[in-house]
Amino acid sequence: MILRRLLALAAVLTLTACATAQRLDAANDVHALLVAIRDGDRTTFDAHVDREALKRDFEARMAKELDRSDVDPRLKELGRLLSPTIANMAGDSLLTPTAFRQVAEYYGYEPSQPLPGRVAIASSLKPMPDGRVCATRKKDGPCLLIFTETEGKWRLSGFEGDLSELKGG
What we know:
alpha+beta
């Protein structure tokens, strides 16, 4: 009985350590992205953003909104046909440091404020069941930015906030 409890505790501690290491690893890239947004650094921003994933995310959100709407079915069909093009255009316009500046400020990344360290950022990251992590404002708050590890770098791959928070730039 005691052995089982010790094994269970060891398993929980191992999983917790893996999740913590994942969050610490992701925190470096999340910090770099938020600093790039704050500073308007397009090169670093582009290196930490998965444009295609975000465009697919925008397209899926448009489709979901169409499904919820009570507009004429023919207009819904037209919307579905146009949504890839609209998502692509929106992605080109909204996937810039300027457009995400309001989001960065929400997280406290303002030029007049000191930047939080890696551990502070890691504490606001939640591991997701599929291996991604999401950034929250508070420890148990809702997800806003979603990051996926690809080729050894954590890249922004989803945005859970209101699209109106993004200002084209």
